[in-house]
Each structure stands twice: as structure tokens, then as C-alpha cells.
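Researcher: We're reviewing a set of sequences before deciding which ones to prioritize for further study. For each one, I'd like a predicted 3D structure that I can look through quickly. This is DUF423 domain-containing protein. If possible, include the structure in C-alpha cell form so it fits the rest of the review sheet.
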Amino acid sequence: MNRKIIAAAAFMGAIAIILGAFGAHGLKKVLDETQLATFETGVKYQMYHALFLLFVGTTALLTEKTKKIICYLTVIGVLLFSGSIYLLATSPATGIDFKFLGPVTPIGGLLMILAWMLLLMQVIRKKA
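Model: Here's the predicted structure for DUF423 domain-containing protein, in C-alpha cell form for your review sheet.
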């Protein structure tokens, strides 16, 4: 499972860098400052959680079952949170109204919070 988690982390990190560069260079001319800042928020959270998964995949503090749950919560959370932010922020450039995705963003955020809370609970419960 560790290999899969680290692979997911690497993939998410690489995509975050690509999207960050795309936002800084490609979208700079088509989005206003607020939309660009929103897009960058999605990139930041994606990168933070790529690093989070890198830690999860390499730590000995967690069971394999817990790592798997954290991985699923994080990946789905990032897809919903950052993915919806990317689409909402680029709506003016694409001409597609993604407002219906507005409620998806906090669901993704909640899943990411649950992943962090699960890590916290497992570390607190772990005996030295």
C-alpha cells in the first residue's frame, strides 16, 4: 500500500506543479486577480495534500488499514475540493457555468479534514 500512496502523492504533486505553472502563465491573461487567486488556492491545497500523502506513505506510525483510509479520504477530498475550485475559477475562461459544483468544495474540504483527524487520533492512541 505504501507504494500506491507514494505514487498518488507524486502524481498529485506533479499535477499541482503543472496546474500552478498553467495558472501563473496561461491563465494570467484570461482570469482576473480574484479568479486567479481562487485557482491558486486549489493548487496550494493539492500540493499540501500531496506532501501529506508522502508522509502517510512513509511513516511507521500508522497501520496499513489506516493509511489506506487516509489515502482514500485525501485523494477524493482533493479531487472534490481542488477540482471544483479549478472548474469554478476558470468558468469565465471556458464559458461553462460550474456554479452547481459550489456545494462540492466543502465536501472535499471535510474529507481532507477527516484524513488529518484520523492521523491525529491514530498518533494519540499509539503507545510509545
